[in-house]
Protein: DoxX family protein
Amino acid sequence: MSETTAPATPASAPAGVVAESATARGRRARIALRGLQVLLALFYAIPSALPKLIAHPSAAESFEKLGWGSAGMYIIGVLELAGAVALLIPVLQSVAAIALSALMVGAFIVQIAVFDGQYAATPLILIVPLALIAWARRGHNADLLRLLGRRA
Structure:
């Protein structure tokens, strides 16, 4: 008597996801996605958040023009830095991508309303890979909710 059994899959992952990730194509996709996350995290941490957090004159001037002053500049800088770090933490990746996308919507609106659309394309371009990360890493949202449920 011969019995055929399916390979064991983690309880939280659908069988199709595990099978796809086992292929060479799935591995390449995961590596590319992770590389994209690292690249975006570096972008948000260094050329975006850092000038705000060190009060670089160019950042300070922009926030003064907005009327938000240094407090607004530091808050946006901290949000960008937190999002950059969270993009690298598996359970927070999807939420970080969504939060940074929301920040980019705000940046787009500010670029159009205050700065005459000079750099309005930049936030829109950044939303595309952030949306991809949010969608691809959406499975981690359930893990995050489970973690938060344990603490409540």
User: Anything to note?
Assistant: The chain has a mean pLDDT of 88. The CA atoms of residues 66 and 114 lie 7 Å apart. Helices lie at 15-21, 24-53, 57-66, 69-86, 93-113, 121-136, 140-151.
